[in-house]
Amino acid sequence: MTRFTQAELEAARDRLVPDVVADGLAVLFCGINPGLMTAATGHHFARPGNRFWPVLHLSGFTPRLMKPAEQGELLSYGLGITNVVARATARADELSGEEYREGGRLLASRLTEWKPRWLAVLGVTAYRAAFDDRKAQVGPQERTFGDTRVWVLPNPSGLNAHWTAATMAEEFGRLRVAAQD
């Protein structure tokens, strides 16, 4: 893995990272926003401590552990990646409430275009902020966007100590089973 200096990471601030998306995906995973490592590499969930890629494999979504640089391969499994907020920051707490709400509005309009079967929002706090649903919990949601159903998953950030890779994989696995129906 490429090592970046702090100055190189800071230079990636506010950089946009392209979505990994196609029409009609089974599951579109939605992060909060790109971190600086993701923005520097152009690959989603690129920070070494992020558990997205291992949990994706442990839950059975992918047949092997993938590297962030292989993100394009997700499309062959009917999976994609986007973010609530496109702007890269060092920490999610740098985002304003209005950025979350505007990101939620933009995401909702893009879902009518892309039409995934499931939107999987990675982080209950991000979901609550983006869609003004203060009572949301991890799991399937009542809300839909057209025919797109919504599942809130735990945030795979290494900072989320409430969830282990194993317990996250169980929740991701519940979505995987639901997405097969």
CATH superfamily: Uracil-DNA glycosylase-like domain
Low-confidence stretches: none
Distance between the termini: 37 Å
Question: What's the helix-strand series?
Answer: HEHHEHEHEEH
Share of residues in helices: 25-40%
Instruction: Report the biggest beta sheet as strand number plus sense, adding barrel if it closes.
Output: 5 strands, mixed
Q: So what's the CATH class?
A: Alpha Beta
Q: What is the count of distinct domains?
A: 1
Strand order of the largest sheet: 2-1-3-5-4
Name the overall outline: globular
Q: Average pLDDT across residues? A: 94
Query: What is the CATH third-level topology name?
Result: Uracil-DNA Glycosylase, subunit E
Portion in strands:
15-25%
Write a structural description.
- The chain contains 6 helices and 5 strands; from the N terminus they run αβααβαβαββα.
- The chain has 181 residues and is an alpha/beta fold.
- It has one domain: Uracil-DNA glycosylase-like domain (Uracil-DNA Glycosylase, subunit E).
- Helix 3 (52-58) crosses helix 6 (165-180).
- The protein is globular and about 45 Å long.
- The model has no long low-confidence stretch (mean pLDDT 94).
- Keywords: DNA damage, DNA repair, Glycosidase, Hydrolase.
- Its EC number is 3.2.2.28.
- Residues 18-179 form the Uracil-DNA glycosylase-like domain.
